[in-house]
Amino acid sequence: QVWCMLLNDKVQFRMHWPQNADLQVNGMQVRVVPRPSTQLLGINGRDDGPVITTFCREGQNKIVLSSDDARPFCFGIRIAKRRTVDQVLNLVPKEADGESFEDSLARVCRCLRGGNTTDDADSDSDLEVVADFFPVSLRCPNSGSRIRTAGRFKPCAHMGSFDLQTFVELNQRSRK
Protein backbone atom coordinates (compact mmCIF):
# COMPACT_ATOMS: atom_id res chain seq x y z
CA GLN A 1 0.00 0.00 0.00
CA VAL A 2 1.24 3.48 -0.81
CA TRP A 3 0.46 6.44 1.40
CA CYS A 4 0.95 10.16 1.29
CA MET A 5 0.66 12.81 4.00
CA LEU A 6 0.59 16.57 3.82
CA LEU A 7 3.41 17.90 5.99
CA ASN A 8 2.24 20.42 8.62
CA ASP A 9 -1.37 19.31 8.07
CA LYS A 10 -3.88 20.69 10.60
CA VAL A 11 -5.00 17.09 11.14
CA GLN A 12 -1.90 15.17 12.20
CA PHE A 13 -0.96 11.84 10.64
CA ARG A 14 -3.89 11.52 8.23
CA MET A 15 -3.45 10.19 4.74
CA HIS A 16 -3.70 13.12 2.34
CA TRP A 17 -2.79 13.07 -1.34
CA PRO A 18 -1.74 16.16 -3.33
CA GLN A 19 -4.07 17.76 -5.84
CA ASN A 20 -3.72 16.36 -9.35
CA ALA A 21 -1.59 13.48 -8.08
CA ASP A 22 -0.31 11.13 -10.74
CA LEU A 23 0.99 7.77 -9.49
CA GLN A 24 2.62 5.20 -11.74
CA VAL A 25 3.90 1.78 -10.70
CA ASN A 26 6.09 0.09 -13.29
CA GLY A 27 4.60 2.35 -15.98
CA MET A 28 0.99 1.53 -15.02
CA GLN A 29 -1.33 4.36 -13.95
CA VAL A 30 -2.76 3.98 -10.41
CA ARG A 31 -5.67 6.10 -9.22
CA VAL A 32 -4.86 7.53 -5.79
CA VAL A 33 -8.00 9.37 -4.68
CA PRO A 34 -11.70 8.82 -5.37
CA ARG A 35 -12.46 12.56 -5.00
CA PRO A 36 -11.97 14.96 -7.92
CA SER A 37 -8.26 15.70 -8.16
CA THR A 38 -8.85 19.46 -7.94
CA GLN A 39 -10.98 19.21 -4.76
CA LEU A 40 -9.20 19.98 -1.49
CA LEU A 41 -9.54 17.58 1.41
CA GLY A 42 -11.87 18.89 4.14
CA ILE A 43 -11.01 19.03 7.84
CA ASN A 44 -12.92 15.78 8.49
CA GLY A 45 -11.77 14.10 5.29
CA ARG A 46 -9.15 11.42 4.91
CA ASP A 47 -7.75 9.90 1.74
CA ASP A 48 -7.09 6.20 1.43
CA GLY A 49 -3.93 4.56 0.19
CA PRO A 50 -4.24 2.44 -2.93
CA VAL A 51 -3.05 -1.15 -2.81
CA ILE A 52 -0.41 -1.63 -5.49
CA THR A 53 0.20 -5.38 -5.14
CA THR A 54 -1.14 -6.18 -8.62
CA PHE A 55 1.21 -3.61 -10.20
CA CYS A 56 4.36 -4.84 -8.44
CA ARG A 57 6.69 -7.59 -9.47
CA GLU A 58 9.43 -9.49 -7.73
CA GLY A 59 12.69 -7.58 -7.62
CA GLN A 60 13.06 -3.90 -8.41
CA ASN A 61 9.96 -1.76 -9.07
CA LYS A 62 9.68 1.80 -10.34
CA ILE A 63 7.19 4.02 -8.52
CA VAL A 64 6.69 7.62 -9.67
CA LEU A 65 4.50 10.21 -7.95
CA SER A 66 4.08 13.61 -9.58
CA SER A 67 1.79 16.54 -8.89
CA ASP A 68 1.45 20.26 -9.52
CA ASP A 69 0.54 20.85 -5.84
CA ALA A 70 3.14 23.20 -4.31
CA ARG A 71 2.51 22.06 -0.72
CA PRO A 72 5.09 19.71 0.89
CA PHE A 73 4.09 16.04 1.13
CA CYS A 74 5.64 12.85 2.48
CA PHE A 75 5.23 9.68 0.42
CA GLY A 76 5.79 6.11 1.54
CA ILE A 77 5.13 2.46 0.91
CA ARG A 78 4.09 -0.02 3.57
CA ILE A 79 3.46 -3.71 3.62
CA ALA A 80 -0.04 -4.07 5.00
CA LYS A 81 -2.31 -6.98 5.72
CA ARG A 82 -6.05 -6.45 5.98
CA ARG A 83 -7.43 -8.21 9.03
CA THR A 84 -10.93 -9.53 9.56
CA VAL A 85 -13.14 -8.26 12.39
CA ASP A 86 -12.49 -11.49 14.33
CA GLN A 87 -8.71 -11.10 13.92
CA VAL A 88 -8.87 -7.54 15.27
CA LEU A 89 -11.09 -8.60 18.18
CA ASN A 90 -8.56 -11.32 19.06
CA LEU A 91 -5.88 -8.60 19.38
CA VAL A 92 -7.85 -6.93 22.19
CA PRO A 93 -6.47 -7.94 25.59
CA LYS A 94 -8.58 -10.56 27.34
CA GLU A 95 -10.36 -9.72 30.58
CA ALA A 96 -7.79 -11.67 32.62
CA ASP A 97 -4.98 -9.55 31.09
CA GLY A 98 -6.82 -6.26 31.60
CA GLU A 99 -7.30 -3.92 34.50
CA SER A 100 -7.21 -5.48 37.97
CA PHE A 101 -10.29 -5.24 40.18
CA GLU A 102 -8.49 -2.85 42.53
CA ASP A 103 -7.43 -0.55 39.67
CA SER A 104 -10.92 -0.69 38.19
CA LEU A 105 -12.50 0.18 41.55
CA ALA A 106 -10.07 3.10 41.99
CA ARG A 107 -10.93 4.38 38.48
CA VAL A 108 -14.67 4.18 39.20
CA CYS A 109 -14.16 6.08 42.47
CA ARG A 110 -12.17 8.78 40.62
CA CYS A 111 -14.96 9.06 38.03
CA LEU A 112 -17.57 9.43 40.75
CA ARG A 113 -15.50 12.16 42.41
CA GLY A 114 -15.19 13.94 39.06
CA GLY A 115 -11.41 13.76 38.81
CA ASN A 116 -8.88 11.58 37.16
CA THR A 117 -5.97 11.99 39.51
CA THR A 118 -4.55 8.98 41.30
CA ASP A 119 -2.92 11.07 44.05
CA ASP A 120 -5.15 11.25 47.10
CA ALA A 121 -2.55 13.00 49.29
CA ASP A 122 -4.65 16.17 49.50
CA SER A 123 -7.91 14.37 50.20
CA ASP A 124 -9.57 14.37 53.59
CA SER A 125 -10.24 10.72 54.43
CA ASP A 126 -13.04 11.71 56.86
CA LEU A 127 -14.92 13.63 54.18
CA GLU A 128 -16.31 11.79 51.20
CA VAL A 129 -19.09 12.52 48.75
CA VAL A 130 -21.11 9.42 48.01
CA ALA A 131 -23.34 9.24 44.96
CA ASP A 132 -26.44 7.20 45.69
CA PHE A 133 -27.34 7.03 42.00
CA PHE A 134 -25.00 6.96 39.01
CA PRO A 135 -26.59 5.90 35.71
CA VAL A 136 -24.49 4.01 33.19
CA SER A 137 -26.09 3.30 29.82
CA LEU A 138 -26.01 -0.27 28.53
CA ARG A 139 -26.73 1.00 25.00
CA CYS A 140 -23.92 1.45 22.53
CA PRO A 141 -23.61 5.11 21.47
CA ASN A 142 -22.63 3.97 17.95
CA SER A 143 -25.39 1.46 17.19
CA GLY A 144 -28.09 2.17 19.79
CA SER A 145 -28.27 -1.57 20.55
CA ARG A 146 -27.41 -3.23 23.85
CA ILE A 147 -23.69 -3.58 24.57
CA ARG A 148 -22.52 -7.20 24.30
CA THR A 149 -18.82 -6.65 25.03
CA ALA A 150 -18.07 -3.29 26.62
CA GLY A 151 -15.11 -1.40 25.18
CA ARG A 152 -13.35 1.69 26.44
CA PHE A 153 -9.98 3.20 25.60
CA LYS A 154 -7.41 2.77 28.35
CA PRO A 155 -6.73 6.48 29.04
CA CYS A 156 -10.44 7.38 29.31
CA ALA A 157 -11.43 8.79 32.71
CA HIS A 158 -15.19 8.49 32.13
CA MET A 159 -17.55 5.62 32.87
CA GLY A 160 -19.14 5.32 29.42
CA SER A 161 -18.37 2.47 27.07
CA PHE A 162 -19.32 1.19 23.60
CA ASP A 163 -19.95 -2.19 22.01
CA LEU A 164 -16.53 -3.47 20.97
CA GLN A 165 -17.64 -5.46 17.91
CA THR A 166 -19.77 -2.57 16.60
CA PHE A 167 -16.80 -0.21 17.00
CA VAL A 168 -14.46 -2.53 15.06
CA GLU A 169 -17.03 -3.15 12.30
CA LEU A 170 -17.70 0.61 11.88
CA ASN A 171 -13.99 1.30 11.61
CA GLN A 172 -13.55 -1.51 9.11
CA ARG A 173 -16.22 0.05 6.88
CA SER A 174 -14.50 3.44 7.10
CA ARG A 175 -11.13 1.66 6.50
CA LYS A 176 -9.52 3.03 9.66
Description of the molecule:
GO terms for molecular function: SUMO ligase activity; zinc ion binding. Keywords: Metal-binding, Zinc, Zinc-finger. This is SP-RING-type domain-containing protein. It comes from Aegilops tauschii subsp. strangulata. One of its GO terms (biological process) is protein sumoylation. The protein has 176 residues and is of the alpha+beta class. The chain contains three helices and seven strands, in the order βββββααββα. Helix content is 17%, strand content 14%. The model has no long low-confidence stretch (mean pLDDT 82). The protein has two domains: 82 residues, no CATH class; 70 residues, no CATH class. Strands 3-2-4 form a three-stranded antiparallel beta sheet, with no helix packed on it. It has a two-stranded antiparallel sheet with strand order 1-5. A two-stranded antiparallel ribbon has the order 6-7. The two termini are 14 Å apart. A hairpin with a 2-residue loop joins strand 2 and strand 3.
- Are there runs of 5+ residues with pLDDT below 50, and where? none
Computed over alpha carbons, the radius of gyration is 23 Å
Report the biggest beta sheet as strand number plus sense, adding barrel if it closes. Answer: 3 strands, antiparallel
Order of helix and strand elements from N to C terminus: EEEEEHHEEH
**Which outline best applies?**
elongated
Helix content: 10-25%
Number of helices: 3
Taking all residues together, what is the mean pLDDT? 82
Q: What separation lies between the terminal Cα atoms?
A: 14 Å
Structural class: alpha+beta
